[in-house]
Fold this sequence. Notes:
Blueprint: H1 5-8, H2 11-23, H3 33-47, E1 55-64, E2 67-76, E3 84-88, H4 102-112, E4 115-119, H5 131-146, E5 151-156, H6 158-170, E6 179-183, H7 195-198, H8 207-218, E7 242-250, H9 254-266, E8 271-280, H10 291-308
Parallel strand pairs: 3-4, 3-5, 5-6, 6-7, 7-8
Antiparallel strand pairs: 1-2, 2-4
Helix pairs in contact: 4-10, 5-6
Amino acid sequence: MSTDYSVLIDAETWAFIERTNSFYPPDAVDYTVAQQRDVYNTMCKAFFAGYPAGISAMDRFIEADGRTIPVRLYDKAGSNPEAVCLYFHGGGFVVGGLDSHDDVCAEICESTGFHVIAVDYRLAPEHAHPAAFEDCLAAFEHVAATSSLPIVLCGDSAGGNLVAAVSHHVRHSDRAPIGQVMVYPGLGGAQDQGSYLTHAEAPMLTTRDTAYYAKIRSGDRDWSKDPRFAPLADTDFSGLPDTVVISAECDPLSDDGRQYCQRISAAGGKAIWNNEPGLVHGYLRARHSVTRARSSFRRICTAVHLLGQGRWPGQL
Length: 316
């Protein structure tokens, strides 16, 4: 199914796409994993925007079940944090880490004044599912046990998947998250319908790419019915935290966000789905160069801030 991206996507966003592709070509899924990581890390360094004034970060480790999980803690000078934002980075479960989303986390901290904690979960294929989920769950449990502040979960792409997976798993806990914010998440939707067809050849991420990353993460096992792998596979959407999902229109994953929010609403919960017009997967890196991405990032930070305060954003 053909989509006319020359109409949907503006000049600023095309410039971002072209700059990204100059580092990370569309056929990079044919690279070895080591090559993909090198390309991705180089690209992220090129887009790195630095820290806002007053933001500091320190690296720490969480010990869980005999393994060590690196985390990075961000704080804003002079702030009195009202909540903790636990951030799970994107990267298809294959690339990314504490550095790839370092400036994003610093800017969320500056905007909200919250403690922000980024989690360096284990990556596939060395560590197939459920390794990433287990690390993110362990990080959540550590924060829940050591802080009395409300917890907001936030993540993009693969990290959005992990946000939902953890929220579903701990929803009945006394320290369940107060809110969850997902940015263009992949949640395990059916790849033979909706946006997986209309945006199958979208710039930045194709439906073929999503299948590739899911296969690597799965370790060649069928986890499609496991909500820790595919949150949309859950049969119960009740009791989940207040939810904001912000998708990109030109992205095969966009309908995952729509379906997820619809299921929460149908189960009596609160959920907002924003489908950002003309934006593409990975646009967080465009937040300083693309007007639409800058506006969307403000909405993301606002959602994290309001949910952490126990307030419902209404419309973003």
